[in-house]
Every structure is written in structure tokens, then in C-alpha cells.
Amino acid sequence: MKERMIVLANVSKAFGDIKAVDGLNFHVNKGEILGLLGPNGSGKTTTIRLINGVIFPDEGEIKVLGLDTVKDGNEIRSTTGVVTESAGLYENMTAQANLEFFGRIYGLSNQDLSGRINRLLGQFGLEDRRNSKVSRFSTGMKKRLSIARALLHKPEILFLDEPTTGLDPESSRDVLTYIKRLNREEGITILVCTHNLPEAEGLCNRYIFLDSGRIIEQGRLEDMIEKYTTSVQMEIQFSGTLGDTLSGASSYELKPSGRVLVTLEDRKQVPKFLRRLANKVDIYSVNMLNNNLEQLYFEVRRAFYEKTGNGGHN
Amino acid sequence: MRRRAMAAIIKKDIRAVSDNVQIWLPIIIVPLVFTVVLPIVIILLTKYQSPAGSSAWELPMKLLDKMPMGSMQDEINSFPTLQQKVIFIGLNYIFLPLFLLIPAMVSSTVAANSFVGEKERKTMETLLYSPISEVDLFISKVLAPFITSMAVTVVCFIIYGIVVNLFTYDIFQGVIFPRPNWYLTAFLLSPAVSVLSIFFNVYISARVKGFQEAYQLGAMVVLPILAIFYSQLMGVFFLSNVMIVLISLIFFAASALLILSTGKSFNRNKLFESQIK
Ligand SMILES: Nc1ncnc2c1ncn2[C@@H]1O[C@H](COP(=O)(O)OP(=O)(O)OP(=O)(O)O)[C@@H](O)[C@H]1O
Ligand SMILES: [Mg+2]
Questions:
Q1: What's the predicted TM-score (pTM) here?
Q2: Average pLDDT for runs of 10 along chain A of length 314
Q3: Which residue has a Cα nearest atom 12 of ligand 1?
Q4: How far is CA B109 from CA A183, B54, B106, in A?
Q5: By the CB < 8 Å criterion, does B24 face chain A?
């Protein structure tokens, strides 16, 4: 069995009347990237705070590396790194000064620190800006510095709260590349909260869907897609005469420039359908439309609301 | 290791103020006015204005009438001329409470910045995600304004001494500053004022939304100082050595009460639940 880095057992936390987290049970395995998904206010940030022991659960128990978050908070925090929604950097200080400051807070020796800072600044492409004040940084640079900051003490677990919000596509891609590389090369376990589903899809190994502090679904993308989508939707680009090749589809719709949108009742029909089609026409591309995370997200939420009778977005 | 983390926080909190002109300019101007400009004005007024009917003479003379008998009277009466008496009362007694505005304002500004400013800029959150103990963090955040305030106070004490002695030397044919009551002011009452104003800021930091509000509310620490100033002018009491020690003790006691009632709210859990969004 894989080593479990984080285990939550029946964890609840309320702020006044609001149940921010309500009976959470899940674990995070060593070396995985877990995506925590859910609408605003579903309890993602609260979950990160609970796991890091900066707030305590009303009920339940959280273990990080076998340590209890209520009793051993500081020990846990010395093995975790958190990138908060706001960058959390000192704007009046330079990149270098920020890293030096946090390095001292984490108890790094001067020797370790200067080597570590050089490496991280290089890794995150901030070497030539090390002596600029953070207030002059772009949002993307701040985010990268913020991640570098969270990695100073070589944490075993990294928490990323909406790491790409507010970034342009290029900066987002850079940040995602860094995150993936960290996970691949250094084996860091990562828990990431995000609203950007296409990004999450390329990043995470496993997902947890939250709603009002509760888990409404969890698992690997393939498994959840199998569970939630029986029918398949695809967009096919072709040239030639279709004839009766589309008769196996439950519905289809012809689109301009040689494309057709096809819905099949069951994903098991896909191979046979495509084989038959390929015999008749030239196929240039097949685009699966409802097997991505974004589609799944809405499926999961729709199913949840049907089950609970809850009318929709809260 | 703990020491290093604490030193880093203190250094950073002091730099946050020294890097920001809008914050440190008022900190510099107020002491400058009270230690250089005002004393010089008073001294020059007594030099070039005749005693009769002049406002510069009025207050110290009234005060002289109300002086308690004994050593304080003797001290004043040891100066032969009226001008000497007036200058001595003005610079040694009337100015003393005004000097306290320096530690009060400096520590209040730095404390507002280090407690509320850090929350407002959302760096407190990052800091609390680190493994630093709350006690270490609290002590560092109290020491930053205290050290700044005491450094400014001592520098001002020296400047005031130089200005006073320089401008009165020809009048007294000697050095009149500092007397024991000023040593007590600089090294006992000023620290007491600093501590009180820092702890008052900790108290309000849990209740305000932003730095500006904290800064304005924090200015309330000048009230007891103004009370002392007017009490002395009205002749309620004089800032004798005993009185200075007594006031210091009262300030320290008030600080202790403040911190006993709010120190507990400086804790990760409470900060995250009620103050960090
Ligand atoms: N310190 C707090 N005091 C009061 N209510 C809080 C506090 N922190 C969180 N909440 C409430 O708990 C709920 C969950 O908040 P949380 O910040 O965990 O959501 P989130 O999933 O991170 O949302 P977002 O996507 O907007 O970041 C919300 O209703 C929020 O208003
Ligand atoms: Mg959040």
C-alpha cells in the first residue's frame, strides 16, 4: 500500500452557523498530485488551513505524516509548504530579502540558505530580478517567487491554493510546468485547489469534488468518467460521403467544413462505429467532447443536485 | 535558531517602517519639533522679550507660585535671575510630558504597522503557516516597536540635551541638563509609555480593519500624556522624581492589564478564525 501523507477522519469545522467543512474523510498518498475542486465557499481553503493546523477541527482528527495537527502543529508546518491565494510576500523587500527572511524563519543556516536561494531563483527564472523589490513584480513573478518561498525548507507536502488565478496563459503554463517538475523530480506530494478545470486535468492524478464542505465525488478521472458518462459525444472531421455510416449513432448533427457531431449511446460502441466510418470516409480528427474534467465536473454536480434535491448553485 | 528567527522578524518589522517615508516622516517631524524647534523658540522668547505682560513668561511664573515647598523650590530659587527660573521651569518641567509624545508616537506607529499592517497585507497568513511559535512571534513583534521607540527616544534625549545646553549656556554660565528627573524620564517613563502604547495597539489590532484605523485609534495613547501635561500646568502635581516613578509604575500596571486581557487572542487559531480572511 502506498504511504499515506495526510489522513482526514470525520473532520468538521464551522464558523458560526456556516459549516465550512462537514465530515471530511480522505487521504493523500505520497507522491501524488491531488486536486481539490469545488465552487466558491465549498471549503477548499479551510481544508488546507485545517491540514496545516492553523485552525483546529470541531470534530474529527487529521494526521499529517502520522502527526496530529492539533498537538504537533509546528512539527507538521516544518514539513509542509503553503502557497496562499494572495502571494503573501513583503512588497517592500527584494526577492532575495524575502527568501532570506523566510529561510531564517524556517531555521535554515546561512550556508544552506544562500545555496538554496540561488537554486530556487534559477529554477523559477527570477535570477536577474533577485534585487528588485517585490512591489515591482508582475503577478506571475510574484506567484513564482511565492512558490519558491514555499519550497525553501524542502517540504514533503506542498499546498497550492489557486496557483494560477490572475495569471496570463503563458505564466499559468510556466507555473504548471514547475509544479509538475517538482512532483516528478523531487517526489513532492501536492494538494492543489483550483477553479481552472482544464489546467487541473493536465496536472492531477486524482480529484476530490467538494460542495458545502462535503465530498460529493472523488477518484481518478478515467474512473469517474466511466461512472458518470455512459453516452459518448465526439466531433469528427472527415472528407467523403457518409452514406448510412452514422446509423449506429443515437443522434448526429452535421457541421460546416466537413465536421459532424456524433452521440453514441454507449462508449463500448466507439471502436466499432469508428471502424465502420473509417471504411467509408477519410477521418482527419476525432475529438471526444464529454470525457474531460470540465464536463465531468458539471455531470458530478448535476447528479449530486438531482440526488439531494438541491435546486442548483448556492 | 529561535533567536535567529526572532531577530529576522524584528529587523523586517523595523525595515517595513524605515522603508516607508509616509510612515517615518511623521515619526521624525514630531520629535524634531519637540526637541529642537520648541525649546529654541522658548529660550529666544525669554531672551528678547521683557518679563512684563509677556505670554512666554506667564505660564512658568504661575507654575513657580504653585511649586511645592522643599527641594524643588530650593532648586529653582538657586537661580538668581527671573529669566533663569523661567527657562529652567519651562525646559525641565513643562517640556517633560511633551517629550513623552516621542516614545508614544514612535512605538504606536511601528506597532500598528507590525500587527495590523502585516495582517492587512496578508503576509501574516504566510508567517503563521511557518513553524514559528506564537510566543516567539509575539515577543518579536513587541520588541520591534520597543527597540525603535527607545532608539529614537535616546537620540532625542541627547539632541534635546545638546540644544538646551547650547542655547542656555550663556544664560546659566553652565550646564543645566539633564537633571535626575530627565534620566528617569528617558530610561524609565519612556519605556513605560512605549510598552503601554504597544500593548494598546495589540489590543486594538484585534478590533480594527486596517492600518489606518489602527494608526488613528493608536493615537489615543497621547491622551494620558496630555493629561499629565495639563495637570502639571494646573498645578495638580509636579513631575518630581517620585512622581515620574509613580506614573511609570501606573503605566506598566496598565500595560500588564491590557496584555493579560488580550495576549491570549494572539494565537494562530484565533487569528485565522477571526482576523485573517
Ligand atoms: N475565518 C472565517 N470566518 C468565518 N467564516 C469563514 C472563515 N473562513 C471561511 N469561512 C466560510 O467558510 C466557507 C468555506 O470557505 P473557504 O474559504 O474554505 O472556501 P473556498 O472553497 O476556499 O472558496 P474560494 O473558492 O472562494 O476560495 C465559506 O462560506 C466562508 O465564508
Ligand atoms: Mg479559497
A1: 0.90
A2: 91 95 97 96 96 97 97 96 94 96 94 94 94 95 95 97 91 92 95 94 95 95 87 90 85 89 89 91 90 88 84 49
A3: A20
A4: 44, 37, 5
A5: no
